Amino acid sequence: MQALKYIQPWKVEIAEIPGLTCCAPDDVVVDIAVCGICGTDVGIISGHYPVALTGITLGHETSGVVASVGESVTRFTPGDRVVVNPTYSCQQCRMCQTGNPNHCEMKMGTEAGVSYDGAFAGQYRAKEAFLRKLDDHVSMQAATLTEPLSCTITGVDKLAITHTNIRAAVTGAGPMGMLYVWVLHQRGVEAFMVEKNPHRYQFARNNLPPATRIYDDFEQALEQEYGSRDSQIDLVVDTTGQLTELIFAHLAPGGKLLNVALKDKHATLDVLKIADKSLSVIGSIDSLNNSFERAYTLIRDELIPADRLISHEIDFADYQDAFRLVGCDIANKTMAPLEEENCKVLIRLGNMD
């Protein structure tokens, strides 16, 4: 089979490797249908998020069909359509035991697309406990958004929203920004969105929750929403990593800034203001507290329009074109401007639905 291997920053290649078999009793081998491009994949390839092991197969937002199962597997049989939960946790280390399984100390060697061979490949070897069977009406494509949506739910949970009479915003209209604005909408919080890129702006404008407004400038948005460019805001989710100081300056007393951007960028924050204004600066990554199952339920029940947020599906042979759509120009070893409307871009690995 073929797999997309990470060699070093700006060097990835399709390699021919043997097909997979079940090595442990609870193993399940999945024939991959589609796999989504995540910001983590882009960060690994570009060198901006240098966490992957050399030679690892990239990709972790994936769905497919069960090919074979280990001898102790009881919940799945060959032919089952499944979505993969790539966030491994051992449930035994200190992080798992204290409620942070997304930071499991045993992740090295188990994190899909980082330290364990991922799903930009013909097959993926999973554990039975980290698979979810798909309902018949849920498409393979929509299912790939379960993992990023579970990360979104985890982040929103961390915000501990107690009422909906708040001023809120989401910056960045990429896949994560769109998922955040939709999850907030489901929680009763109507956030406005900020996106400077005209292509992302246009896609978002056509796929936002009802009555959600979008702007191309944060302070202009404050003026339009609340009457002044100096207005304060209660809650901001920043998916860009570019606006931290500006957002911080506009937080109202008790305000919360949630950063989910994996960007190697520094910001200077006034610690006196954090204390004096009772501010919260929060980070979030991966999923925990059954958020994967909750994410799947939102997709299954069509409360999150997963299919609408998928803008492209590209064949595996053309993976460089797929990454170029999201601004990662592998051929020229550079990040490049977006050239057309897009949101979630999928790579098709197999011909099954």
TrEMBL record:
Report whether Secreted shows up as a keyword of the record.
Answer: no
GO annotation terms (biological process):
butanediol biosynthetic process
Q: Which UniProt keywords apply?
A: Metal-binding, Oxidoreductase, Zinc
GO molecular function (one)? zinc ion binding
Domain of life of the native organism: Bacteria
Q: According to its UniProt record, which cofactors does this protein need?
A: Zn(2+)
Q: Which GO terms describe its cellular component?
A: cytoplasm
Q: Does the keyword Oxidoreductase apply?
A: yes
Which parts of the sequence belong to the Enoyl reductase (ER) domain?
A: 15-330
What family does the database annotate? Belongs to the zinc-containing alcohol dehydrogenase family.
Q: Which PANTHER family match?
A: (R,R)-BUTANEDIOL DEHYDROGENASE-RELATED, SORBITOL DEHYDROGENASE
Name of the protein in its database record: Zn-dependent dehydrogenase
